[in-house]
Amino acid sequence: MGKKGGIYIVIAVLTLSAFMLIQYSKPKEINWFPSYVAAHKIPYGTYVFTTIMETMFNEQLQQVYTPPFEFIGANDTLVGTYLFINNNIQFNKEELNSLLEWTSKGNTLFIASKNFEEKLRDTLGLDVDYMYSGFETNQKQVHTLVNPNFNLTDSITFNRDTSTPYFSEIDTLNSSVLGQVTIRIEEKEKLKINMLKHPFGDGSIILSTFPEAFTNYFILKDENKNYTAGLLSYLDDKRPIYIDNHYRSGKSFYTSPMYIFLNTKELKWAYYIALIGALVYVVFEGKRKQRAIPVVTPLTNRTLDFTRTISDMYYVQSDQKAIAEHKINYFLDWIRTRYYIGSITKEDDFYSNLANRSGHSLEFVRRVFSFMEQIRNSDQLTDADLLKLNTLIQKFKAKADGK
After folding, report:
1. Model pTM?
2. CA nearest 401: which of 363, 360, 345, 368?
3. In sequence order, which ranges of 37-187 are alpha helices (DSSP H)?
4. How much is the mean pLDDT over the chain?
5. Domain boundary assignment for the chain
6. Crossing angle for the helix pair 348-358 and 362-377, nearest 10 degrees?
7. Residue 269: its pLDDT value, please?
8. Which residues of the chain have pLDDT under 50?
């Protein structure tokens, strides 16, 4: 690696170090995800609420992590209050039927959610709608508990939502209003019902469209805890209270080991540095360290050129005798390898065998070998003799090749 490559590496390391320093000193962003998980300390977790409940009700409190259908089905003598808290709760048909049947036996079903199952709304004769305030900076949502036992000064303000759910229709003969919400935008006000109680059989159902009242952010802000305390006053502390942890948007525990790395700043950056280091290694160390193997051009076949050179030498020297001797020897060797003949003689059996294998007549074979014998016995040869010898040999080979 040259000097220029080293400079690039130094610049990259300094840039990465500066970026890491900025990220490390940057304030950690607040996680506003509405998880409603009891163990989460984020704004929309319910850690504070869970701690308060465990302190206030102690033995009467039970955390439930199984689906309601299984929990109720496995406990025939189950009595008390079943509390559900989440931004959206949707029971299936069988599950809702089991909850309503359990409630009708003298128990209490408390659901705090922004929406409710359609069958539940139809059963209780109610409907849910929303007031949209957009992103107005001067909008206020004032929540109030209407029970005469609560002082009107216990109303609280919540400005995090851009839409406020409320009960647009209720069963006025059977439902009791427990809470209201007033949304104020500039000089306009709208008063809506957001909490009610409905008798069902020998029991009762309490519904609230404001689940944020149970979150960490809400309880710890100003005097909002008084509003949450008012909600808890509707729970019968003389009977068991079951808090559902199945219908929660977040997870109470994480099975992926990557969560540990990515949720802890130090481990997260250690993980990122390892990835960057691996990338740098691949870029700079992935190259071959040995010298490139040169391409060796294979030797060309010079047999034909060699033959032409030799023939030209013989032609220039005009040594027809030597040329004829070479042509005869090559021809005889060709006959041995072509027809697998061990020895070449001047006997009639040899001529007859060669004529049969080559397809020539016996007379032609004799004439060829007779002329070659004449050439060998001559001291001087002319160009005409050499040309005739070549013609006879080529004619013999052409017949053998089927031409």
Report:
1. 0.60
2. 360
3. 47-57, 68-73, 93-103, 118-124
4. 82
5. 47-253, 308-400
6. 120
7. 75
8. 152, 253-254
